[in-house]
Amino acid sequence: MSKDTTVGFIVACIFLLVGFGKTYAQSSLEQEVDSLTHLIVSVPDDTLKIGRYEDLARKLLSLNRQSKMLEIANEGLALSKKLEYDGGIAKMTLFKAIALDIMGKSDKAIPLYNIGLKMAKEQDEQELQARFYMNLGLCYRYMGDYDLSLENQLYAYDLREAMSKKDLAKLLNNIGIIYRFQDKHKRAEEIYLKSLKLKQELKDSLGMAATLTNLGLVYNKIENRKEKSTQYLQRSKNLYQLLGRPDHVASCNTSLGQIFLNQNNIPKAKEALSDAWNYFQKNIDQQYSPSTLASLSEIAVLENDFQLAKAYLEKALEISTSFGRKVDQVKLLIGLSSIKKELGENADAYKMLKKAYDINDTLNQMSRLEAMEEMQAKFDVNEKISELKISELKLNEQTRQRNIFLFGAIGLALFAITIFFSLQGRIRANKKIAEQTEAIQHKEIIELQQQNKLLALSSMIEGQEAERMRIAKDLHDGLGGLLSTVKAHFSAIQNEVTKLEKLNLAKKTNELIDEACVEVRRISHDMIPHALTLSGLPAVLEDRAETLIGEGFNVDLDIQEFPEDMAKTRQAMLFRLIQEIISNIRKHANAKNILIQILGNDRGLSLIVEDDGDGFEFEKAMKSGGVGLKSINSRVEFLNGTIDWDSSLGKGTTITVNIPEV
Fold first, then answer.
1. Which of 106, 129, 99 is nearest to 116 (CA)?
2. 123 alpha carbon, distance to own chain's centre
3. Is the pLDDT of residue 465 over 70?
4. CA-CA distance, 528 to 464, in Å (whole number)?
5. Alpha helices of 159-225 — where are they, by DSSP H?
6. Cα separation of 425 and 433, whole Å?
7. CA 241, 246, 251 angle in degrees (round to 5)?
């Protein structure tokens, strides 16, 4: 399928879809404008209200209600300044400038664009910068300054990474228009096709219609594509009609009329241009109103109706002058001069021609002034470079003379300096030796203090563990045994005294004694499990794994080459470490699976505990004063080990501890 056939098929599909949705979309947009207008009145003055002003201004722009849009932009701008909200000031400045620009007040719009652009740069808002550059480029294009227009559009293109696809498609379309005005038709076609492809992806029917119009205009300038020109413009016109955009329908009629005029098809040209003027006469457009009248004037000249031709051009000149479009004024004045000459109004013809040349001289003078300013800037730079070179020569000469003096002074002072430094070096060496000796002694003192602290801590912890073992033994062997004896005696009494059974006190007392026995065993087991004393740490961990499984966890315990000769106190400390880690998992991790690995080796052993819980940010948890984490780190430090925390939110936690052999 060819490119043109594809475009035609897509446009035909859009005709069918848009025809059903046009009325609904238009009324829906009107309803949204009314709703937002009422909402703004009722909400408080805050930054959210400024966002609603922005939404309302954008919808008013879509409805071509520029006067109301200007009013809303001014209200939003005033509120943004009151709240000192820089982002709102920049955005509402953009909408105000756009409204003024569309209303033909480019002299007021351009300063606002530049002010807003500066604010967007200060705020580092690249998307907003791109929007300012795009609209500034459009403003310069309507003024006829295509070079400045293209410059701003290309600045916007440099920021395309920050732009939406829809804005990028519009930007490409605008760049293509400038290339077309500069008679770079092949380049314009290439840019238009890129824009059309993006708009097809976005299903932007209004944007597609605009690009189809521009493709039709550019094909009119390419020799082997002229037959496509009217086809594309007619498709665009039909699409605009379905979208309910009479302004764009009129602009398509203007373009079609000009093409028919170039093809010398006067009846069709006159019909299309008359339809266009019927709209633009009531809805003045700074670009299309003058160009429509100029083309109608050409037809009147071909029909020898010079009075009508003059009337058309005078009206066109009036509109262009009101919008300050000087380039258009020059063309219209020259055309009007020719017509007045045909009518025998030679004096007026001369005035028109002189006025055209004066305006043209003004435009050229502005260009010359810009060129002179550029030359002056270059001259200033060259002059500064020359001054720098002269200064450099003078500095080199002064440096040479200074060097001669310095070398002489240095030669005279070398002997004295040599003697001084030899003596000074000896003094420094002795001083350095003394400082090193003092530093070594200080280091030895610090190391001795640290050893004493560790020894004291070790003794304290060993004492704590011994005390725990004593208490656990007493609980198990003493109080536990005593409770068992009490229960046995109580059972004997129960068998003999049947009256107690009727009161049901025996059963309750039995249950309380059983509960006390279980609690004593639990406390004793938690303080120092008997399996640790009898069978060592592996048996305790197996018991603890079964407990965790009973609580609903999936536990994988893997112990390989555990050093059997490890001291019971170190095994107890290692147990406390694992107990603290598991406690943290139970309280905070929300885990389902736990892996506990102990791997013995020649250098000691490695402990790995892994869970699939919520995970956490280690640095943040330590700063917030996590007692459990500090306790774990302290126990690892006591064992002269190292610990590595690997945890992230939502990905669980892995703790790796390496403990050296003692």
1. 129
2. 13
3. no
4. 11
5. 165-181, 185-202, 205-219
6. 12
7. 100
Rounded Cα–Cα distance for residues 507 and 513 (Å):
10
Tens of pLDDT, residue by residue over 497-532, are 555 555 555 666 676 677 766 666 655 555 556 567
Neighbouring residues of 186: CB distance < 8 A, sequence distance ≥ 6: 222
How would you classify the pairing of strands 593-601 and 604-611?
antiparallel
Contact assessment for residue 57 and residue 76, using Cβ atoms and an 8 Å cutoff: yes
| Phi-psi region at 599: left, alpha or beta (left = phi > 0; alpha = psi -120 to 50) | beta
Q: Are 225 and 263 in contact (CB under 8 A)?
A: no
CA 342 to chain centre: 64
Write the CA distances from 398 to 395, 402, 405, 661, integer angstroms: 5, 6, 11, 72
C-alpha distances in Å from residue 168, one per residue of 131, 521, 548: 10, 75, 60
Q: Is residue 307 very low, low, confident or very high in pLDDT (cuts 50, 70, 90)?
A: very high
What span, in angstroms and rounded, lies between the C-alpha atoms of 313 and 336? 6
- Residue identified by tokens 């003055």 is 45
Residue 631 amino acid letter? S
Element (H, E) at 284: none
Stated length of the chain: 662
What is the CA 469 to chain-centroid distance, rounded? 61
CA separation for the pair 269, 431 (Å, rounded): 105
pTM value is: 0.48
**Secondary structure, 3-state, 578-647:** HHHHHHHHHHHHCCCEEEEEEEEECCEEEEEEEECCCCCCHHHHHHCCCHHHHHHHHHHHHCCCEEEEEE
CB 353 within 8 A of CB 169: no
Question: Cα(366)–Cα(373) distance, rounded to whole angstroms?
Answer: 10
Is 497 strand, coil or helix? coil
- Residues 317-376 pLDDT 10s: 999 888 888 888 888 999 989 998 888 988 888 888 888 888 887 766 555 444 444 434
- 3-state secondary structure at position 220: coil
C-alpha neighbours within 13 Å on the C-beta side of residue 137: 26
Beta-carbon contacts of residue 494 (< 8 Å; ≥ 6 apart): 500, 501, 506
Q: Is the dihedral of CA 150, 153, 159, 160 positive or negative?
A: negative
Residues with Cβ < 8 Å from 537, sequence gap 6 or more? 562, 566, 571, 574, 575, 598
